[in-house]
Design goal:
Distance between the termini of chain B: 21 Å
Order of helices and strands of chain B: HHEEHHHHHHHHH
Strand content of chain A: 25-35%
Number of strands of chain B: 2
Helix content of chain A: 25-40%
Largest sheet of chain A: 6 strands, mixed
Number of helices of chain A: 12
Oligomer: heterodimer
Strand order of the largest sheet of chain A: 5-6-7-3-8-9
Helix content of chain B: over 70%
Largest sheet of chain B: 2 strands, antiparallel
Strand order of the largest sheet of chain B: 1-2
Shape of chain A: globular
Chain lengths: 331, 250
C-alpha cells in the first residue's frame, strides 16, 4: 500500500491537537482510498475517500442507510472492501484490531451487546484479559461511570446503562482509536448528555474517536470535524459549524397530542427533535422520507409545515456539483 | 494465548454457574435413569448381552451428553448472537475462530462430568459393576463420541434465532433420544424405526458404549458414522461462519 494520501483529502485538516499517540508514527489514524462496498447490486459506499488524523474526534453524519455502519464495519475489518483500500494506524484493520489498538461500540439493534446472564464486572474483567495492555479496571469503570452497575447481571440493565457498559467494553483495552456506531441510540436525553461528557473527556486524552450519528447537533457539539455521508458518498467534510450552516436541513413542524421524543427521533432522516408542549419541530436530512415514516408510525399529527432548503440543495452549494441530485433523479 | 484461556475459563464458569443449565443437563439423564430403572425388567438382557440397567446407564450417558452439548452450544450461541456479543468479540484481539473454537471446547468440557455423574448413579443405584479400566475406557469412549453433538449444538446456534433456539434444541434432544433408541432399546422398536435409528448419531454413540461392555468387537461402523457426523457438522459450521463473515455478521 503506497503512502499517497494527499489528493484524497477533501478538506484540509485544520484541527490537529497535540496527542501522545502522534509520537508512535506518522501514519494517519485511518485512511479510506477510493473504497467501494456493495451489498448485492446496492452500492453502499461509492468510491469513498477519507482521512482522519491521530487525536481527532470525527463524526460521521448521515441519514439511516447512508453508509455509516458500513464505513465502521470496514474500519474494523468486519467487512472487506470490494474496491480500494482501508488502512487503520498504517496497517490492515484486522491487524490493528488483533494488536488491541482499536476499540469499538457496534450497533446491536434490540440486543445489549453483552453476554446474557453474567455480572457486568466479570464481562469487563474478561474483556481486559483479551488485551495485552489493558487500562486499569478502576480507571475504565470510572471513565464509563459504571461503578454502581458492576454487580448487576447484564440482562437487568436499562438501555442507557447497557450502552455505558458497552462503552466500558470498547475502551477496556486502552485503545488508541475508538469507533462508535450510533452510541446514543435508544438513550434518553439525560443519559445522552452524560454519555457525551464521558466521551469528550476520553477524547481529550489525545485518542482518536470516530462516531456515527444521525443527530446534527451531536455531531456539531462533540466532533472536531463532521463528515456528512449520503448514498455512499461524502457530501461534506469540515468543522461542525461550517457544515451546520451549509447543510440547512428541512424543518418539519406539526402539532400532536403527546409527542414521544424517542419515537420521533428514530424516524428516517431526523437529525434533531424539539418539543414544546404539543408542538414538535423535526430537523430532517430527508423531509420526504421523514413524512412517510411519520405517517407510517401512526402518530396523529396536524398542521404540518415544511420549511428550509433541501439537503440536496445544500450539498450542491457545499460541493459545487449536482452528482447526487442526478443520481436521485435516475432512481 | 492468555486471552484465549481467559475466554475459555469465562465460558466454562458461565455454564457451571447457570442453574438452569445444570438443572437440565444433570437432571434429565439422572431422573430418566431412575424412572426407567424401576421397570421390573431391570435385570433383563437387552440388545445383545447387557442387562437393561447397564444398557440404560450407557444410553442415559449418551442422552446426558446430547442434552449438555445442545444446551451449551445451541440456545446460548443464538442468544449471544442476538445480543451482539459474538460480534463484539470479533473486534477484540482474539482470533476470528476462537469464538466457535471456545464454544466447542467448553461444550465438550461440560459433557464429561455429565457422563461421569450418570455412571456414578448407575454404579450406586443400578448396581452396575465394571472393572476400573473399563469404567475409564467407557467414559473416554462416550466422551469422545459426543463430538458430533457438540458440533450439532453450535450449528443449531448459528442457524436458528434466539426465540426458536430453545424449542428447537428441546425437540432435537428428544427426537435424537427417542429415535436413537436411548429410551427404549432399538431391538424393541418396530422394523422401520430400527432402520431410522441406524442413521442417527445418538444410536451409534450408545452402540459404541454397549459394544465395549458386551464383549462384541470394537464398533468400527459406529466410529465411522460418528466421525462422518463430526466432519459434516464441522463443515456446516465452517460454511455458515464464512457466509456470516463475508456479511460482517460473524
Amino acid at each position: 500500500m503506497s503512502q499517497a494520501n494527499g489528493p484524497f483529502v477533501l478538506v484540509p485538516d485544520t484541527f490537529i491537537p497535540a496527542s501522545p499517540w502522534e509520537a508512535v508514527g506518522g501514519d494517519p489514524a485511518l485512511r479510506f482510498d477510493d473504497v467501494v462496498r456493495r451489498y448485492g447490486h446496492h452500492v453502499a459506499l461509492d468510491h469513498l475517500n477519507l482521512r482522519v488524523d491521530r487525536g481527532e474526534t470525527v463524526a460521521l453524519l448521515g441519514p439511516n442507510g447512508a453508509g455509516k455502519s458500513t464505513t465502521i464495519s470496514l474500519l474494523l475489518g468486519l467487512l472487506r472492501p470490494h474496491g480500494g483500500c482501508v488502512e487503520v494506524l498504517g496497517m490492515s484493520p484486522r491487524r490493528a484490531v488483533a494488536q488491541g489498538r482499536v476499540g469499538a461500540m457496534l450497533q446491536t439493534g434490540s440486543g445489549t451487546g453483552l453476554p446474557p446472564g453474567v455480572k457486568v464486572a466479570s464481562v469487563l474483567q474478561l474483556v481486559r484479559r483479551l488485551y495485552r495492555h489493558p487500562a486499569p479496571f478502576e480507571l475504565t469503570v470510572e471513565r464509563a461511570g459504571i461503578g454502581a452497575l458492576l454487580g448487576r447481571p447484564t440482562h437487568r440493565l436499562s438501555g442507557g446503562q447497557a450502552q455505558r457498559v458497552r462503552f466500558a467494553v470498547a475502551i477496556a483495552g486502552d485503545p488508541e482509536l475508538v469507533f462508535l456506531d450510533e452510541p446514543t441510540a435508544a438513550m434518553d436525553v439525560e443519559s445522552r448528555r452524560s454519555f457525551w461528557r464521558m466521551m469528550r473527556q476520553f477524547g481529550a486524552e489525545g485518542r482518536t474517536i470516530v462516531f456515527a450519528t444521525h443527530h446534527m447537533h451531536e455531531a456539531d457539539q462533540i466532533a472536531d470535524r463532521v463528515v456528512v455521508i449520503n448514498h455512499g458518498h461524502i457530501v461534506a467534510n469540515g468543522p461542525g459549524a461550517t457544515i451546520k450552516a451549509a447543510v440547512a436541513s428541512r424543518q418539519l413542524r406539526f402539532v400532536t397530542g403527546q409527542p414521544d421524543e424517542r419515537l420521533l427521533d428514530q424516524l428516517e432522516g431526523v437529525t434533531d427533535v424539539v418539543i414544546r408542549g404539543t408542538g414538535v419541530a423535526l430537523n430532517s436530512l430527508d423531509a420526504d422520507a421523514t413524512i412517510r415514516a411519520l405517517v407510517h408510525s401512526g402518530v396523529a399529527f396536524r398542521d404540518l409545515e415544511v420549511t428550509g432548503a433541501g439537503l440536496e440543495d445544500a450539498f450542491m452549494a457545499l460541493t459545487g456539483c449536482d452528482e447526487d441530485a442526478d443520481e436521485e433523479r435516475k432512481r | 494465548m492468555s486471552g484465549l484461556l481467559a475466554f475459555a475459563r469465562f465460558e466454562v464458569l458461565r455454564l457451571l454457574g447457570s442453574w438452569k443449565f445444570l438443572a437440565i443437563t444433570l437432571g434429565f439423564p439422572v431422573i430418566f435413569y431412575m424412572l426407567f430403572l424401576r421397570d421390573e425388567n431391570a435385570g433383563k438382557i437387552v440388545d445383545g448381552a447387557v442387562p437393561w440397567r447397564v444398557y440404560l446407564m450407557v444410553s442415559m450417558c449418551s442422552f446426558g451428553a446430547l442434552v449438555a452439548a445442545l444446551n451449551a452450544g445451541g440456545s446460548r450461541l443464538s442468544a449471544e448472537r442476538a445480543s451482539g456479543w459474538s460480534r463484539q468479540l470479533r473486534v477484540t484481539p482474539i482470533p476470528a475462530w476462537s469464538y466457535v473454537g471456545t464454544k466447542l471446547a467448553s461444550s465438550m468440557l461440560v459433557v464429561l462430568p455429565v457422563v461421569a455423574l450418570v455412571e456414578l448413579v448407575g454404579m450406586a443405584f443400578g448396581g452396575v459393576r465394571l472393572g476400573f479400566g473399563t469404567w475409564i475406557e467407557l467414559t473416554a469412549l462416550l466422551w469422545v463420541a459426543a463430538v458430533p453433538f457438540a458440533g450439532l449444538g453450535i450449528f443449531v446456534g448459528f442457524m436458528v434465532n434466539a426465540e426458536t433456539a430453545y424449542p428447537v434444541v428441546t425437540a432435537l434432544m428428544f427426537l435424537l433420544g427417542y429415535f436413537g433408541g436411548l429410551f427404549n432399546p432399538v431391538s424393541h422398536m418396530p422394523h422401520t424405526l430400527q432402520t431410522t435409528a441406524r442413521i442417527l448419531p445418538s444410536f451409534h454413540q450408545t452402540s459404541l458404549g454397549l459394544a465395549l461392555l458386551d464383549g462384541r468387537s470394537f464398533g468400527i461402523s459406529d466410529t465411522f458414522v460418528l466421525a462422518a457426523y463430526a466432519v459434516a457438522f464441522g463443515l456446516a459450521i465452517a460454511w455458515k461462519h464464512r457466509v456470516e463473515e463475508s456479511r460482517g455478521l460473524a
